[in-house]
Amino acid sequence: MLEPIVALSLFVAIFALATVRKVHLGVIMFASAAGVGIWLAGMEMDDVIAGFPVSILVLLVGVTYFFAIAQANGTVDRIITFAISRVGDRAALLPLVFFGLTAGIAAMGSPLAGLVMTPIGMPLAKKYGIDRMLMGLAIGCGLSAGGFAPTSLFGIVTYGTAHSVGIDLNPLTLFSIALVANLVLLLAAYVMFGGLGLLRRRHAGQFGDSRLPNLRGKAPLPGHPFEREGFAERSRRAAQQVQVIDDTVGETTPERFTWAQRTTVLCMAGLVVSVILLAIIGLDPDIGILCFAFATVMTLVDPKTGKTAVSKIDWSTVLMVGGIITFVGVLQEIGAVDLLGEAASQAGAPLVAALCICIIGGLVSAFASTTGMLAALVPLAIPLVADGNIAGWAVIAALGVCSSIVDVSPFSTVGATLVATVDEEERPRITKVLTRWGLSLVVVGPVALVGTLVLPTML
């Protein structure tokens, strides 16, 4: 009994230490998994390493390589500028358009890649009299929705980890749940932060400008803001991107897609269609392998871009998820997961236990890594469904979405970026409202999702 408790305590302590010290969670988790497995559980090193999730590695590498090519050859930027140029002076549509674009970009491997829309959307919101909270939440909801696509990080980690522990969670089901949940949140934000007022505006002159800048015919937008950049750097990038937008006013000659970009668009469409068709006919599509197959076509068309994209593979996330799941495998071997199962069964209320774990996921994710939280909590939620009283897919889907929708908290990377890309005098208000919104979802999200997903499976 003592060894499982010690192992669980070490797992929590290591997670907290890595978060506070801002060190790579995967490195410390993998090393600790080896130490706990050998010295506490009496395992062989080969058995410890066997817990490393190779299938998730293939998924992450294949997906991030595929979409790194799409970014490197300019296809993603061309799609963004094409879509924004079609909005015209209809400011009421801008939050919806940015939700869709952000979700699409987030679906391309990593949700944080969708932050490229923040330094474009927030200045445009100011220019057209849109509440920056509405635009920020539209982008945040798009990140969360797209992040659970079968080709993106949150989705891969959630359903990949669920499959590794024997829970049948359909990737498209998970994505559909996340999409609906975030559309509901977007609708609430639209009502709360002036969206209905935008619908009543008839003329572009009411926005303080004559028309939305025409983005056609320009080179791709400047580089994306990354997680490690500070507020000053993000603000500088925002200024650069707005300048690019302003410089494009009056240009009307569209630049044609290159041969490599056309091939990329076809491959992206082919990937989506392949995943949907294989799921419809009852097959379990290996998205990682499909991404490698289509990426092969793209890199043969443009070898230089394909070579460049190799360095953009998200090895950091592979290591983080791998380290956490390897440690969880040691916890399973030592009996710590069974101990949690006994505790859950003694509680006598699996619904309450499911609600509690979703609240924990949301609360911690508001301050720490959402990906790490998903990789850690999904396997530990298995005891809740061991007796069959509630559906495993419902618990895991609720946990995943609850851990993601709080990312607009200003204490997370997403929320901090939203704050960084508004004017300095607006930051106190945005920070205050984002804090209220994010922390309220720590409770509202679990109650709503457990009530609509988990509760019906118990009836």
UniProtKB/TrEMBL annotation:
Is Membrane found in the keyword set? yes
Is Transmembrane there in the keyword field? yes
Give the InterPro entries listed for this entry.
MatC_N
Give residue ranges for domain Dicarboxylate carrier MatC N-terminal: 4-147
- At the top level of its lineage, which domain of life is listed? Bacteria
Segments crossing the lipid bilayer = 26-42, 49-72, 92-116, 137-160, 172-193, 287-303, 315-331, 351-378, 390-414, 434-455
Q: Keyword set for this entry?
A: Membrane, Transmembrane, Transmembrane helix
Q: What is this protein called?
A: Di-and tricarboxylate transporter
Q: Which organism is it from?
A: Crystallibacter crystallopoietes
Taxonomy of the source species: Bacteria, Bacillati, Actinomycetota, Actinomycetes, Micrococcales
